[in-house]
From TrEMBL:
It comes from Urochloa decumbens. Belongs to the glycosyl hydrolase 37 family. GO terms for molecular function: alpha,alpha-trehalase activity. It is an enzyme of class 3 (hydrolase). This is Trehalase. Pfam families: Trehalase (PF01204). Its EC number is 3.2.1.28. The keyword Hydrolase applies.
Amino acid sequence: MYDTAKDIVLNLVYMVETYGFVLNGARSYYTNRSQPPLLSSMVLDVYGATGDVEFVRKAFPSLLKEHSFWMSEVHNVPVRDKHGQVHNLSRYQARWNKPRPESATIDEELASKINSTADKEKLYHQIASTAESGWDFSSRWMRNSTDMTTLATTYIIPVDLNTFIFKMEQDIAAFAKLVGDNATSEKFLKASKARHIAIDSILWNSEMDQWLDYWLPADGNCQQGGYQWRSDSQNRKIFASNFIPLWLNAHHSGSMQFADAAKSKRVMASLQKSGLLCAAGIATSLTNTTQQWDFPNGWAPVQHLIAEGLLHSGSEEAMKLAEDIATRWVRTNYAAYKATGAMHEKYDVEACGKSGGGGEYKPQTGFGWSNGVVLSFLEEFGWPEHKEIGCSQGA
């Protein structure tokens, strides 16, 4: 369905041309917040399947525009490391301080616990910024995991967002070369190298062998030249997002891997003992807060990003773990489908065949990314005839 894929991408390109970024959804009230930046990955996948250079040429200016959006002052955060080197990373930051139109009553009810109008507006700003992340909602973004009014997403430098922007910079460098713009290609290769160093300097934790979200000071004051890095500002709680940079192993150009084989092995060992690997897939977090992006929910894109990264990490053991995650995920999707006649938005990773719950709306069926990830896993690993599809069987 190459034409369909191209047209979906071109719809998103139109949004970037019109609004400067990919809207959180194709409705007028989403013009104040973005989606996580994965448009360049979509363009790359279409190009990989079709070899259509004209399509790349058409999308290319919009990718530059989207990158500028993420590099703008509201998103860019300078942090000075312990050696005095300043690194630039990105954060989510919606341009909105009112209840979300699609969830206004929910937001107003939450804000009713707060007295001042200014503080209500701050909360609405944090809610919209969290919606921009895709992880809406999770204890990951809260100062107090039991209290939604403590959302503080704009004070966090997220691991996954910077992973996606690094990938975007690498993609743009490759596309620029393809369309004959060598100066832009060099510029974005340089930018991607700088972000790689920034991610490893500010977000990597060598004790935990994970990348960790970084909390900015609560007063929001940025000293001249950037925030000063502090080790206790890394969020040491375990989330599936701490392992998302592994995904970049699946997309490295030439011999340059984001995490070399030795580092990838340490990250894999950390994942194995993290508590996130469950009977039916990877949990989003270790804390059950009843939020939908917390335990025990597992989500298709998270399984896919991490499994893809493991698959290309350079070891037999990592490939086996990737296949094991894929097997558990396909089984639970299949069992839930047989029981309900539908694919689900999210799944409970503690029990094979059980769909997920929690959050602020009724769990949805359908469902695009669940369908896509199952198809991708089946295409990648197959399903041999002797392999049992039922839940109770071993891998």
